[in-house]
Amino acid sequence: MSRLTKRVVDNLRPDPAREVFVWDDEISGFGVRVQPTGVKTYVVQYRTQVGQTRRMSIGRHGVVTTDQARTVARKHLAHVTLGDDPSAARKAARKIMTVAEVCDWYLEEAEAGRLLGRRRRPIKASSLKMDRSRIVAHIKPLLGKLPVAALKLADVEDMQADIAAGKTAKPRVGSRGGATTGGEGTAARSVSTLRSLLSHARRRGLIDNNPAMGARIFAGNVRERRLNETELRAFGLALRSVAQEGEHPTGLAAIRLLLLTGFRRMEGLGLQRAWLVERRAIRFPDTKSGPQLRYVGAAAVELIEAQPTVDGSPFVFPADWGDGHFIGVVRVLDRVCTRANLTEVTPHVLRHTFASIAGDVGFSELTIRALLGHAASGVTQRYVHLDAALGLAADRVAAMIAGLLDGAATMPSPLDVTEIEPALKQFA
């Protein structure tokens, strides 16, 4: 042990397998906890008068200084000497925590990797970004001041109705960023976020019950929009037309790749060249469904390899400035659709179009799910003949879409898939 100082705490290194505690040699019970994720939190540990061991968090290193944490630890330990139990007092205070305070607790704990989401893994940064947006824009303004203990199911459903009616909607400010919108979809997702974070708080003993659990949320709208044969030809013509007029080439290429692969919007935009591997496959280190090997057609590979490189950028579609990837695909897509006289076309519609064309060709639901990244994790890594089958399927779907975009006179007839489907059906 040694006296804890900022330098000492800064130099502490995490153990990937477990939490590590380092104790101060000046104040007994004062220490710092180092999570496997690298998050460092000051703590104070003591025994109550009945011999129970308590441990309290004081604050995160970087937010609280070492000297500030030392001062708080001294105060807590002084109360213990007088027979008090600071941990019990804190738990009593939690009984009157507001919705806003529980939201703040959830974001802090989740960002530190201490809360698990899907597949019992730490909640992803992308999910937290959306949760934070809903908390700040909708949940806090409508329910933030209410004590959780007083929250009723009716309050939650009233929040949903208010969001759907646009009570929390705000216009876009400045030249960047988006507007805060209402609507049933936003309202339903906000209730889901509140229900989830309250479940975490209840499981961790922060609150006694979750009043959002019984809330009825709006049913989602089934997205059935796709581009049909005529629309695909018009879309392809519009792509060529706006390209000749100087439309953003990176945006146009990204749109075409989404159509040729069925990738989700951020999978396509965040694609890195190093992820392209043998047998025309993309090895995603992470997706909505975890790490995946996704097969793509020759037309998609040619498009990827044709994109100009930018020194220092790993991305297929680099940003115009900065070291990130291109993000303006929706605006480019809107301009293309205006030229093609098409409405209600989003990146998800492009993904759905890919799936629908695969169905038109004659591929089964299992094959389509595999092409879209819905297959069970690890299947394509274990069976070489399945790899080949998916590669052929991806190639045929991409070739058909490319032909329609480039002005094919007629819709190609469904192709013979008898050599592909049997290899896939045995894994259904």
Automatic annotation (TrEMBL):
Residues 97-202 form the Core-binding (CB) domain. Keywords: DNA integration, DNA recombination, DNA-binding. It comes from the Bacteria. GO terms for biological process: DNA integration; DNA recombination. One of its GO terms (molecular function) is DNA binding. Residues 222-396 form the Tyr recombinase domain. This is Integrase.
